[in-house]
Amino acid sequence: MIRRIQFALLVMVIVAVGAYDVYLSIKHQNTLFEMEENPIGRWLIALDGGDVALFMTLKMIGISLVVWALMAMFRYRRHLAMPVATVLATFQAWLFYYLTFA
Questions:
Q1: Which pTM value belongs to this model?
Q2: pLDDT tens track of the chain, all 102 residues?
């Protein structure tokens, strides 16, 4: 039971920071192309004529796929799910710090 709660909290961190990233991207969409450090993100914005819709859609699909994969991993390879979720949540926590304070 404790492992399920820990896993759920890790997944919630991953999703919450992903949502925060999307929020900031939409909020600052007028300057996102200049601020975006991810070359794939810049390419997707340019591909969509300067709009962030394609980039945000693919970002949300990516987050959804990660969550789906984590859930499947927790069901079928539980011994791998916790370390993978921990690494991803740690990266997301760093991303939150970077987006908020850097």
A1: 0.94
A2: 999 999 999 999 999 999 999 999 999 999 999 999 999 999 999 999 999 999 999 999 999 999 999 999 999 999 999 999 999 999 999 999 999 998
Annotate 28-67 with b (16+ C-beta within 10 A) or e (fewer). Answer: ebeebeeebeeeebbebbeeeeeebeebbeebeeebeebb
Which helix (H) or strand (E) segment is 53 a member of?
Answer: helix 53-76
**Which residues lie closer than 8 Å to 25 by C-beta, 6 or more apart?**
32, 52, 55, 56, 59
